[in-house]
């Protein structure tokens, strides 16, 4: 049995940023954001518990004329049980977290000395982010104190997003010390008794790819919400100035408000909400739609992705003639958001989050704390939130009918609306307030502090490289899809090797259509998703779009001129709008009437720098000259530093040909369209499988001894 700890002394470590008890400078820079608020509110909530004797929030001391003198105080007493402790480390001036790595050993030594000089050392250390994880690991090992860790953001995931923004691997290392950060995370995972995450999805998609990941180490405790800030209506919400500003464009402003609040990001899927609303006259009669999509002065001044989203939203509003029924304010302030939720609640409205993927769903908790019933995507965090609070309806974000049905149900059933409103208030207080978080936290860590429940670590096998060493790229149609039994075997094989092997899907389909097909066949989100025939690249775990790739292929691309040449061309018929995208023009082709070589000649004669490809004998895609599945594959391989010789590609139609040529290990799965790839039959490094679909992929992987080679590389 361990020592009995009746009242715990807990040390929270959050090294970077500017931390003080009052007037927190949120948003001052990238280091002073959500994490600083999280640790401050956690410390405050823990200090209010009777079985906690002392809480120290440990951060770095800063003496710098460019920041407030508060940050130079060695100790700031917040209340009788909570203090902020500032430790000297490195230069006195304020520096960003990327520059702190050389000074973390000194921070750890100084912190250990600080603890030793006290009458009592902490019963538990809880580190936040990789830098604090490294400090916490050193101090915990030195003083024999259990360590708990919260990552907030992980290096392997951050690297994907930075690559998507256009930075090279070399730039990422230079600017962010990414290899060092990932190694610090590995050390922390090797030391920590428990790791706290916000969702189960965070464990499965992020932590599981680390070498020192231990399933028994992980615990899910959602972050708390400030229920003093987010609260139910007080009675005057519909008389406020903000209500007037939100609804001044609306013909009947007193209808219930369907509220959506998110960034102007394609993954947030806001356009589908307008589509659902626009296709239902009954919804338009019942309620107004208010969309808060960031701040803007001029849409043309926004980055390209946001411009595209607003274009989609405005076109949808115009298509369904929703003027006077939809409001999309240009500006709002962060401090106005709680009142927006209360306005929606006071009006008898609903909050909707139709995102394609939602790892957590903080806005849903804020809405619930304000008494608004919620409608949310069935992916990720919302499933847990609605499961705990019983305050809303899960929808399929790819099917507008599910959104329409859910809205009509809530807007026409007053009893259900009232039940969901009160359930949300009760559920947030019980499961998602800081008080609830602190109570669950103490239940989790008390056995650790008493040394009664230490982690039994399982054997692990470290990889020889910080990043993945190889990758599998495959199409969806007639490759992955077609044999669900073999598909399940393939997915399990990929999952078993995910630490060394990236999984990528390259498809001609648009993002939303590809996601719908993947969901139908239970294909997990890949590490890399290439859509629209190679014109769009997304990275897990949040489908982060590669904006650098979009900029790269937007070269001599004039789609309106291509349309003028081909829309009336004999033997061509435009595919539906759902198959068109920003960098892809898609047609059905009748080979009896139209010759693809003649089409290429016409486009080149008219000085159109385009890539023309045929798939499955009937689909013709016109892309920018720099875009194709093969080009996208090579771009990803270069950015992720995976040699082409270590990449396996499975294809089944002509659209896959340029992925398969060259130095990749390629395979053609058996299907009726193999004649489009028959010219490759004598090409080196291309294997023609006897089996179709996923069975053909499994056959080909075995032919190449693909995973066996990976094991050989690890041990060599």
UniProtKB/TrEMBL annotation:
Q: Name its species.
A: Methylophaga aminisulfidivorans MP
InterPro entries to which the protein is assigned, alphabetical: Glyco_trans_1, HAD-like_sf, HAD-SF_hydro_IIB, HAD_sf, SPP-like_dom, SPS, Sucrose_P_synth_Pase-like_dom, Sucrose_synth_GT-B1
- Cite the NCBIfam families for this sequence: HAD-SF-IIB, sucr_P_syn_N, sucr_syn_bact_C
A GO molecular function term, named singly, is: sucrose-phosphate synthase activity
Which reactions fall under this protein's catalytic activity? beta-D-fructose 6-phosphate + UDP-alpha-D-glucose = sucrose 6(F)-phosphate + UDP + H(+)
Q: Which residues form a coiled coil?
A: none
Q: Which UniProt keywords apply?
A: Glycosyltransferase, Transferase
| Keyword Flavoprotein listed | no
EC assignment: the record states: 2.4.1.14
Q: Which residues form the Sucrose synthase first GT-B domain?
A: 9-214
**Matching Pfam families, A to Z?**
Glycos_transf_1, GT-B_Sucrose_synth, S6PP
Where's the Sucrose phosphatase-like domain? 470-705
The Glycosyl transferase family domain, residue ranges: 253-424
For this entry, the protein name equals sucrose-phosphate synthase
Q: Which family does it belong to?
A: Belongs to the glycosyltransferase 1 family.
């Amino acid at each position: 049995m361990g020592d009995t700890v009746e009242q715990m002394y807990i040390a929270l470590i959050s090294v970077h940023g500017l931390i003080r008890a009052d007037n927190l400078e949120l948003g001052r820079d990238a280091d002073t954001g959500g994490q600083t608020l999280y640790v401050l509110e956690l410390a405050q909530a823990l200090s209010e518990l009777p079985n906690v004797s002392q809480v120290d929030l440990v951060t770095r001391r800063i003496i710098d004329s460019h920041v407030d003198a508060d940050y130079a105080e060695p100790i700031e007493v917040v209340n009788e049980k909570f203090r902020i402790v500032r430790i000297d480390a490195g230069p006195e001036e304020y520096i960003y977290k990327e520059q702190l790595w050389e000074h973390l050993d000194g921070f750890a030594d100084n912190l250990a000395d600080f603890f030793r000089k006290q009458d009592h050392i902490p019963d538990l250390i809880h580190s936040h982010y990789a830098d604090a994880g490294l400090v916490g690991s050193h101090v915990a090992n030195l003083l024999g104190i259990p360590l708990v860790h919260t990552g907030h953001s992980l290096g392997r995931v951050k690297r994907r997003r930075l690559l998507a923004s256009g930075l090279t691997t070399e730039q990422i290392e230079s600017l962010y010390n990414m290899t060092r950060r990932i190694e610090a995370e590995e050390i922390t995972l090797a030391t920590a008794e428990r790791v706290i995450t916000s969702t189960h999805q965070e464990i499965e998609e992020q932590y599981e790819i680390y070498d020192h990941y231990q399933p028994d180490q992980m615990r899910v405790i959602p972050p708390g919400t400030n229920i003093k800030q987010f609260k139910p209506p007080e009675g005057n919400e519909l008389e406020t100035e903000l209500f007037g500003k939100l609804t001044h464009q609306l013909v009947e402003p007193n209808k219930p408000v369907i509220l959506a609040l998110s960034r102007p990001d394609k993954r947030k899927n806001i356009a589908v909400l307008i589509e659902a609303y626009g296709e239902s006259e009954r919804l338009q009669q019942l309620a107004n739609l208010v969309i808060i999509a960031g701040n803007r002065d001029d849409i043309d001044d926004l980055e390209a992705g946001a411009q595209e989203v607003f274009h989609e939203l405005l076109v949808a509003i115009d298509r369904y003639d929703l003027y006077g029924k939809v409001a999309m304010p240009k500006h709002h302030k962060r401090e106005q958001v709680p009142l927006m939720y209360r306005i929606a609640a006071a009006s008898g409205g609903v909050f909707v989050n139709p995102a394609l993927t939602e790892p957590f769903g903080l806005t849903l908790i804020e809405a619930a704390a304000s008494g608004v019933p919620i409608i949310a995507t069935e992916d990720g965090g919302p499933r847990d939130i609605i499961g705990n609070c019983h305050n809303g309806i899960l929808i399929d974000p790819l099917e507008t009918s599910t959104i329409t049905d859910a809205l009509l149900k809530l807007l026409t059933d007053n009893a259900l609306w009232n039940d969901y409103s009160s359930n949300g208030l009760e559920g947030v207080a019980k499961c998602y307030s800081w008080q609830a978080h602190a109570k669950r936290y103490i239940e989790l860590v008390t056995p650790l502090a008493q040394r009664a429940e230490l982690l039994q670590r399982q054997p692990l096998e470290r990889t020889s490289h910080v990043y993945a060493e190889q990758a599998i790229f495959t199409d969806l149609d007639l490759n992955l899809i077609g044999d669900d039994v073999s598909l399940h075997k393939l997915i399990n094989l990929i999952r078993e090797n995910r630490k060394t092997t990236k999984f990528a899907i390259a498809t001609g389909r648009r993002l939303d259509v590809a996601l719908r097909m993947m969901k139908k066949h239970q294909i997990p989100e890949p590490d890399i998703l290439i859509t629209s025939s190679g014109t769009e690249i997304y990275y897990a775990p949040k489908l982060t779009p590669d904006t650098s790739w979009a900029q790269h292929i937007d070269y001599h691309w004039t789609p309106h001129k291509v349309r003028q040449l081909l829309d009336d061309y004999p033997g061509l018929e435009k595919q539906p709008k759902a198959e068109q995208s920003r960098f892809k023009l898609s047609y059905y082709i009748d080979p009896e009437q139209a010759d693809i070589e003649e089409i290429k000649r016409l486009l080149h004669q008219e000085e159109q720098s385009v890539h023309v490809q045929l798939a499955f004998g009937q689909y013709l895609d016109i892309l920018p000259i720099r875009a194709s599945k093969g080009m996208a594959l090579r771009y990803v391989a270069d950015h992720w530093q995976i040699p082409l010789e270590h990449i396996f590609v499975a294809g089944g139609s002509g659209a896959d040909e340029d992925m398969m040529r060259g130095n990749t290990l390629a395979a053609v799965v058996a299907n009726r369209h193999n004649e489009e790839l028959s010219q490759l039959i004598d090409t080196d490094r291309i294997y023609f499988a006897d089996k179709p679909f996923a069975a053909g992929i499994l056959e080909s992987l075995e032919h190449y001894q693909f995973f066996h080679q990976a094991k050989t590389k690890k041990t060599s």
